[in-house]
Amino acid sequence: MSPGKPAARKTKKRAGTAGAGKRGARSAAAKAPAVLVPDGATGGARGARGADRREAILAAALDEFAERGFEAARLDDVAKRAGIAKGTIYLYFRDKETLFQELLRAMLTPIIGGFESLGQTDIPTKKLAEHMRDVFVHEVFETRRKDVIRLMIAEGRRFPKLAEFYYREVLSRIFEALRAILKRGAARGEVPEQLVEFPQLMAAPGLVAIIWTGLFGDIAPLDVRRMMQAHIDILFAPRS
Amino acid sequence: MSPGKPAARKTKKRAGTAGAGKRGARSAAAKAPAVLVPDGATGGARGARGADRREAILAAALDEFAERGFEAARLDDVAKRAGIAKGTIYLYFRDKETLFQELLRAMLTPIIGGFESLGQTDIPTKKLAEHMRDVFVHEVFETRRKDVIRLMIAEGRRFPKLAEFYYREVLSRIFEALRAILKRGAARGEVPEQLVEFPQLMAAPGLVAIIWTGLFGDIAPLDVRRMMQAHIDILFAPRS
Amino acid sequence: MSPGKPAARKTKKRAGTAGAGKRGARSAAAKAPAVLVPDGATGGARGARGADRREAILAAALDEFAERGFEAARLDDVAKRAGIAKGTIYLYFRDKETLFQELLRAMLTPIIGGFESLGQTDIPTKKLAEHMRDVFVHEVFETRRKDVIRLMIAEGRRFPKLAEFYYREVLSRIFEALRAILKRGAARGEVPEQLVEFPQLMAAPGLVAIIWTGLFGDIAPLDVRRMMQAHIDILFAPRS
Amino acid sequence: MSPGKPAARKTKKRAGTAGAGKRGARSAAAKAPAVLVPDGATGGARGARGADRREAILAAALDEFAERGFEAARLDDVAKRAGIAKGTIYLYFRDKETLFQELLRAMLTPIIGGFESLGQTDIPTKKLAEHMRDVFVHEVFETRRKDVIRLMIAEGRRFPKLAEFYYREVLSRIFEALRAILKRGAARGEVPEQLVEFPQLMAAPGLVAIIWTGLFGDIAPLDVRRMMQAHIDILFAPRS
DNA sequence: GATGAATGAGACTTCATTCAT
DNA sequence: GATGAATGAAGTCTCATTCAT
């Protein structure tokens, strides 16, 4: 669970990854590709090989970056995990930085999809909020995407372009949609007015969940779902 | 055959360092020391020098680590920024990792102080919350401590010991105090019950503030104070 | 998801010295490879290159270590002498210490060969001794192996494992064989009894030869062959 | 006895000098000074302080150099062991190399004394040889001088001047005296003629003793005295 | 297209030496 | 004279990137 001693760099002998190389390496790959690549691109005849490779690299990169951060991750390990040669990475990505950025972009983009359509329905805002919470828990928190967001948080400052992209393509859109929903809810008296101006307050527990779990998950587990429910209950409490 | 002169190492002239001390180097030092060092320790005759140096290094390290992260920060730059020689760092810290950890420990520990005493007073919980928000804004958000927390968030996973320390020495205490306050507030009907179980919900906007500002501060400024006020208003809204 | 093992790092297994090749790299390489590598393994198309490099590094390392000792030798110079880049060394040896130890092991191991078979013959012990002296002079004293033994003597204390290896794999075997020979010789009255218990006395002039030549060879040359002959004459003098 | 792991340089914490600093540090100092400094220089009033310091440094240096070799020994440790400040060393010795050379010179010079007078007596050569063996065992082998000779052997090649000095001032004189003795012995038929030309053969077991003990003393102890006796018995065996 | 050996800039760390106190 | 904090050259080792096969 815990990432172990940080100073891994100094140990002379590599910590025996033993089985992990075979088993663990693919685990992420099995999940991620569907997310990273538009359907249909996978099934091709021979040319598909290239796309597969790309996927394998991205999946492996996610594992390594998530585990060690951008600087500490080694392309050597990414290659090993992807089951390819180190040089091959450079056939698909200009350099480490590009790999990192494309990984994050690829993983972050599809998040929006679900949210933007939510505003259409006419169900009670609280129900909507609970649905959003479920989506977050299942599609983000219990997913590799949680790690992607964590990476974004940890490294974002050093990749301003990436942060901007994330804001423009993801956050601003989500908050746009959210704001619309909250506005309607406020109009109906279901939600406090203030949320409209600061939809971040609505999302804050998600952020807490990701960070808390990452840092203190082992020492002080957090029941994320219940926390988010509590938050919703507070926001949507009937007010006088 | 004959090895000739054994390693006759000559020290080159100190020419290089001559005008070394750049004034800009002190920028952070001007702020941090007050935090890092107990008042009065500065003026001494003997040990003071050492403490000063230590402070200068910590201040410079904060700048570098905050800007680049643990791995990417170079001790060379830390030294340059502190206006000292590279080797001097090692007179005060065993290695880069120790420097990093001591920096965070030194900056994080004093955070608790202010919070723990808050529970004693008997003023309305909302007022207390607003006071806490002010403390946060002035003592953390508008301070280098904001960067320290950001560092903790970004690198914490790779320094489990540090994360544990932070949880044990800082967070758990703050939440302990917070929980007591909220309990009393809930008993008086000022605060929703759920906050007692999840005091994280109370602190969440602070987290949002730090991360948002760090990543999107330039693109999409956030009025942190107002956001936190909105949050308080929602939590303490009279409920039916 | 979970950070799992801290490192996916694997120890690179060097596919042994299996593949081989000669053709020297530099001065010492011209001599050493024949010693370090079994003949006939040269032909391979693929691995040959790697083995060559390895040989070149070992040869260069021998030069540098012999000239300056373990600590003072610089890998930079080893690389330069081998005609490769600094980093390349680390593709073949984990670190400086490993390089040093593998060098000594590789050079010392084959020494035993010649000696162990000597006991089989039935020629007079004195003739045997003279033959051994010739082997020593040609295979050790006039060879790079002389330097290796010098290194072993000079640095052995700081590498107890290596010293133990040398004793176990080389010396004890040689002395075993020697003792058998001397025992037979003593039974025949050709050799003084005492030599059986202290075969070191038989080998002592070899040690003297190596050390004397190393230290005073230029100032006070020593006719090693004649000295060893004198020693043999004394030991095998007919006694009353 | 054994120097421990060779890679001491890499361990983060210095091998626990703990007790050694107090106890071990003085051990050598207690013995060496008498050797290093002409009698009478010690007892002065106040000025003696300087000579004492010098002695302390030399004694400490011997310990450190013997344990780690010239390159690996750190002046910091020498100072610590001598109970002085690092900079003080430079008040007495120009630099590390000078310290090393003066140490060896100081320790090696007095060795000759005893030997040169031996030739005067008229006792049987074998008795003389046995006496010399006793002197060697007590004054060299069981003494710090053994380490000095070991150092000479290990580092001599890198300090040609020192080797030359040793040869000129020590070895050549000893062998001169030895040769005279052996010549007389040979004339009387007590000793084989050949020894006169190669007195090294007489001294060889001493060399073996020092080196063997240093390298394999722990694994395969050697009864030095008996070995030397055996050697003498062989050399002086009545011959037909 | 793939490979992986090779490269070499660059990071951390050590330690002989200096010098202000 | 002593001190020991400070210096910075130098050494080991890592790893992103290249390129011949």
Which two chains have the most extensive interface, and how many residues on each? C-D, 56 and 59 residues
Cα shape of chain A: elongated
Helix and strand element order of chain A: HHHHHHHHHHHH
CATH topology of the largest domain in chain A: Tetracycline Repressor, domain 2
Share in helix of chain A? 55-70%
Low-confidence stretches of chain A: 1-48
What is the helix tally of chain A? 12
Oligomer: homotetramer
**Strand residue content of chain A:** under 5%
| N-to-C span of chain A | 46 Å
Query: How would you characterize the largest beta sheet of chain A?
Result: none
The mean pLDDT of chain A is: 82
User: Would you tell me the structural class of the helices and strands of chain A?
Assistant: mainly alpha
What is the level-2 CATH architecture name of the largest domain in chain A?
Answer: Orthogonal Bundle
Q: What report would you give on this structure?
A:
The first copy, chain A, folds into 2 domains: 32-93, Homeodomain-like (Arc Repressor Mutant, subunit A), CATH 1.10.10; 96-235, Tetracycline Repressor, domain 2. The first copy, chain A, is an all-alpha fold. Chain A is elongated, with a radius of gyration of 20 Å. Chain A contains 12 helices and no strands. The model of chain A is unreliable at 1-48 (pLDDT under 50). Chains in contact: A-B, A-C, B-C, B-D, C-D. At the C-D interface, helix 8, helix 9, helix 10, helix 11 and helix 12 of C face helix 7, helix 8, helix 9, helix 10 and helix 11 of D. The structure holds a DNA duplex (21 and 21 nucleotides).
